[in-house]
Amino acid sequence: MNSIKDQKNLNKKKVLLRLDLNVPLKNGSITDETRINKIIPIIDFLIKEQSKIIIISHVGRPKGKVITDLSLKPICENIEKKINRKIRLVTEDIFKLKKEDLFKDPNDQIVFLENIRFYKEEEKNDTKFAQHLAKFADLYVNDAFSCSHRAHASVSKITEFLPSFAGLQLEIEISALRKVTTEIKKPITCIIGGSKISTKIGIIKNLISKFDNIIIVGGMANNIIKYKGNQIGKSIKEENCDLMIKEIFETLKSHSCKIVFPEDVLIGKNLKDEAQIKELDNIKDDDIILDIGPKTLDKIKGIIKNSETVLWNGPAGYFENPNFANGSYNIAKAITKKNKNNSIYSVVGGGDTIALINKIKLMDDFNFVSTAGGAFLEYLEGKELPGIKALNLYV
C-alpha cells in the first residue's frame, strides 16, 4: 500500500479523507470518543502539510435517508475543540456540489461532508457516486480500517478514480494485526470470548495453525463445556453448534495448538447475584455460568506469563456485575504487567473488551487497542478486506 506519510508536496492539495467516526450518540452527545481520538493524528498531519481536507464519514445506519439524529454535527464540534480549528459541515446535497464550492473561503482548511450513508449509493458501491466524490479532490486517503471490510463507494470504488493512500491509523492497525497473524513472535496466545461460537469459528480455525494457545472464555465457552458432557444450567448457549465444535477439535489434531476452556466457573442464580465457585461436575439446573473460576484463571495467567504475543477479543465473564468481573480484570492485569517490561506484544479488540479496559483505565497499557469491530474479526479470519485490496489498485 502507498502511505500518505511518504508523499511529498501535499501543500494546497485537496485530500478526500475517509474516516470512521461512527461513535455512539445519546441525545446528540457523544458517549465514547475513542474512535475520534484515534483519527486526530491524520488530521494534524494533513494540517501540518497545509492540505485542504475533505472528510467523509458516517454515523449509524440511515439506509440512504436523511435522519437528523444521525448528523455529523456533534462530531464536527467535538473535533473542532480537539484541534482548535474551525470545521465547516457541508449539508448541501452532494450531487449538487462542485469542487470549487468546498473551499470558497480561503481560510477554510477542513470541511466535513454530511453523513455519507444518507446516500443510498454509498452502500451500493455505486460507480457514478464514487466518480462524483472523486471530483472534489486531488487524492484519496483511507484512515478507516474499521470500514474497510465494506465494499462501499467511499471505501473501495473511490480508489479507481483518484491516487489513493493508506492513512496513519490504518497503517498502525494493519501493522499490529500482522504481528498476531503473519509476523508472529512466539509463543503466541489468543484469548477469545463472546456469546456465539458461530461468529468466531472462522477465526479459531484460521488461528489454530499459527497460534500455540487458544483460550475460549465467555458465553461461547459454555457450548464447549456442554459438548464435553457437562451441565451448564440456565447459562447462555448457542443452539446447533456441536458440529462446529467438533470441527475445531478435529482441526487441532494436525496442529500443535492447545485449546483451553474453563475447568471451574463462577455461577449465580441471576445476573445480579453474588458469585459462587463451582466445579464443572456440580452445575445445577438453575445455575448461570457468569465468569471463569480461580483454577481456570490461574491457568490462563500462567499461559500469559509464558507468551510473547497475545491477542484478546472478548471478556471472560459478565463484567457488568463486579462480582463476575474478576476473570476479565485479572486477564487484563496479567497482560499489562508483562507489557510494562516489554516482554509481550498485546493486541486487544472488540467492543465489550474495550469497554472493560476503559472501565479499569488500562486503555494505554496495551500495545494496540483496535476499535475496528467487523473488520478486525474478518482480518483475523483471513478474509480479504475490500478497502485494503482497493488501496493496492492504484500504482
H/E topology pattern: EEEHEHEEHHEEHEHEHHEEEEHEHEHEHH
pLDDT below 50 for ≥5 consecutive residues: which ranges? none
Total domain units: 2
Q: Can you count the beta strands? A: 17
Widest beta sheet: strand line-up: 5-6-4-1-7-8
Helix content: 25-40%
Query: What composes the largest sheet?
Result: 6 strands, parallel
Strand content: 15-25%
Q: Please report the distance between the alpha carbons of the first and last residues.
A: 9 Å
> Which secondary-structure class do the elements indicate?
alpha/beta
CATH topology of the largest domain: Rossmann fold
Compact overview of the structure:
The protein is α/β, with parallel strands linked by helices.
What's the structural blueprint in terms of helices and strands?
Blueprint: E1 14-18, E2 25-26, E3 29-30, H1 34-48, E4 52-56, H2 73-83, E5 88-90, E6 110-113, H3 120-123, H4 127-134, E7 139-142, E8 164-166, H5 168-178, E9 188-192, H6 201-208, E10 213-216, H7 219-227, H8 242-252, E11 258-260, E12 264-268, E13 276-279, E14 288-292, H9 294-305, E15 309-313, H10 326-340, E16 345-349, H11 351-359, E17 368-370, H12 374-380, H13 386-391
Parallel strand pairs: 1-4, 1-7, 4-6, 5-6, 7-8, 9-10, 9-15, 10-11, 15-16, 16-17
Antiparallel strand pairs: 2-3, 12-13, 12-14
Helix pairs in contact: 1-2, 6-8, 9-10
